[in-house]
């Protein structure tokens, strides 16, 4: 009865703005699918263009002779590097670095939300703790979509996401629930509650380890 009363008080206090974040993974998934379709269309057009060029070269008279006799190699004078090439290369490297850092930033943001949720639970701020758990779940769902959209999928990002999942979906929810349901009396009920939270975290760790070694990972 005490748990049911606490649930009824906690749910209406959730920030309404966080509920709109749940739709972001779905929108990103649609954008990712549209981008993949556009890439496939461009590849198909390139293949068709190459096929038409090959047919045109085979049917054009004199092409085989000109292709059989390679042109004489001309000695080109050494070119001096252009002034704008170095800044342009640095700009491209900076953009690539930002693309690689964006998914990891979302993963670290989710980790920060889950850790702050535990701090809010210690302060008995249950609405803020629940909202931060939801925000961590949303950020964790976005990092994979952003990595695929930016073509920034790396082994480092996958391992960082796996470690963050243990905290976001294992440790943080268990600690928040323990702080919320603990009566502070140290009786048998509190001991059973703590054992349940520990078992939940261990189950999450085992599930993540099994997923990481599975052949069809990702």
UniProtKB/TrEMBL annotation:
Residues 28-57 form a coiled coil. It is found in: Membrane. It comes from the Eukaryota. One of its GO terms (cellular component) is membrane. InterPro entries: CDP-alcohol_PTase-I, CDP-OH_P_trans, CDP-OH_PTrfase_TM_dom, CDP_ALCOHOL_P_TRANSF_CS. GO terms for biological process: phospholipid biosynthetic process. One of its GO terms (molecular function) is phosphotransferase activity, for other substituted phosphate groups. Keywords: Coiled coil, Lipid biosynthesis, Lipid metabolism, Membrane, Phospholipid biosynthesis, Phospholipid metabolism, Transferase, Transmembrane, Transmembrane helix. Its main location: membrane. Residues 66-87 are annotated as: Disordered. It is a multi-pass membrane protein. Belongs to the CDP-alcohol phosphatidyltransferase class-I family. This is CDP-diacylglycerol--serine O-phosphatidyltransferase. The gene is pssA.
């Amino acid at each position: 009865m005490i748990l049911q009363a606490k649930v009824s008080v906690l749910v209406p206090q959730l920030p309404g703005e966080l509920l709109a974040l749940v739709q972001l993974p779905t929108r990103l998934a649609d954008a990712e699918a549209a981008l993949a379709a556009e890439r496939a269309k461009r590849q198909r057009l390139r293949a068709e263009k190459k096929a038409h060029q090959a047919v045109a070269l085979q049917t054009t008279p004199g092409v085989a002779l000109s292709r059989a006799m390679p042109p004489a190699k001309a000695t080109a004078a050494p070119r001096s590097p252009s002034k704008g090439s170095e800044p342009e290369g640095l700009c491209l490297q900076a953009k690539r670095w930002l693309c690689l850092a964006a998914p990891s930033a979302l993963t670290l943001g989710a980790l920060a939300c889950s850790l702050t949720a535990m701090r809010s639970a210690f302060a008995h701020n249950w609405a803020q703790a629940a909202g931060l758990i939801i925000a961590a779940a949303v950020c964790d769902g976005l990092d994979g979509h952003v990595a695929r959209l930016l073509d920034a999928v790396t082994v480092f990002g996958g391992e960082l996401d796996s470690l963050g999942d243990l905290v976001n979906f294992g440790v943080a929810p268990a600690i928040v629930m323990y702080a919320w349901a603990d009566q502070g009396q140290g009786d048998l009920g509190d001991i059973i509650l703590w054992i349940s939270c520990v078992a939940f975290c261990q189950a999450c760790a085992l599930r993540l380890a099994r997923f990481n070694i599975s052949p069809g990972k990702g």
